[in-house]
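worker-3 :: picked Transposase
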Amino acid sequence: MAPKPSPEFRAESERVALTSGLPRKQVATDIGISFSTQSRRIQQDRRNPEKPTAQSDLEREAAGLRDENRMLLKDMDVL
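worker-3 :: tokens ->
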């Protein structure tokens, strides 16, 4: 029986699967887990409202960058 992956490994593998642009099946093969295991983990994490997903992290970062951009554009208008 294989050892249970660490929470860090699991989070990183999900982040790569969701954000790398590579097919999820290829990512699963590259990190040494089955595609079905990877898909099940991603679905479980999406159903858990208390755990932020990689997608929600990206959305928050994008919103912060849009706000910063808006502020910088206002500053440029003042100058």
